[in-house]
Amino acid sequence: MRIRLGYVPLTDAAPVIAAAELGFARAEGLEIELAREPSWATLRDRLALGHLDAAHMLGPLAIASALGLSGPPARLSVPMALGLNGNAVTVSNALWAAMAPESDELDHVAAGFARVARARAAEGRPLTIGTVHPFSSHSYQLRLFAERGGLDFDAAIRLVVVPPPDTVDALRRGSIDGFCVGAPWNSVAVAAGLGRIAALGCEIVPDCPEKVLALPADGADFTVPLVRAIHRAGLWCADARNRGSLSVLLAERAELDSDAGLIARTLDGALIVDADGRERTNPAYLRLGTETHRPAPDHARWLVAQMIACGQVAPGGDAADRAAALYRPDLFDAAVGR
Fold it and tell me: Which SUPFAM superfamilies match (predicted)?
């Protein structure tokens, strides 16, 4: 059976790319045709309209699409999660210099960000910060980061959508003052001398729900073998012994616009945060592997709570229950034999 699977070029697409390229899918009787999508909105629409059979997708966007909150309504299921964490907040060199935090500690960085944002808003030229999609953990992490510094996010920040592959160029052109995006694009910006990694997403929200495998709710014919293939591929990706091979695979096949060495550092959680070569290490920066694969309905509920907090969903309805029902640990268990 041939399946067309969409992905956005990010390090956490590793399990689906490995499944397609390293024989894991073929062993399950599947042939995965990978489709590199330029943005989350494009991927969302192509999945909803049937041009894709499955997708590496933002968890909140899968929920929003299924609830009719973003793009064409789609009947979806989430039989597998693909990872946790992986994001970071990167700011321009000029903004970092203005923030001048006392240390790299999160509260100090958030306080410096808030101070500059308030001053800029008072001058009528608010900071412009990029997020990858309104329905994304990135948007929610930015809001929580700002609140950590005591900042009223909506009153002080101009939030714009920038697809992940375009964030570095947007920073280069001065269209944005910073962004929250997944690996490796924060590191690409640092390597280009354009910005400074200010905060890791895993510090703002530990074990933050991230990408999922999303597919049509009626895709039962291939759901079990596809989940099994991607699960096995994800275990391979999480094995440190395969780090070098995986980094080369992602650099060549996923078109991440960065070399294998830089990708390996994102997989290790050993990031260069500025042009002077300062390193910051956090093994939880991007979590792949068996402990991240089983879809957790509580993650869907948490994401809906964030949607409510930022006004995307009205409080008091059944959105949390409907979102939780999309996450199907029963399908995952059936696939992997739990």
Answer: Periplasmic binding protein-like II
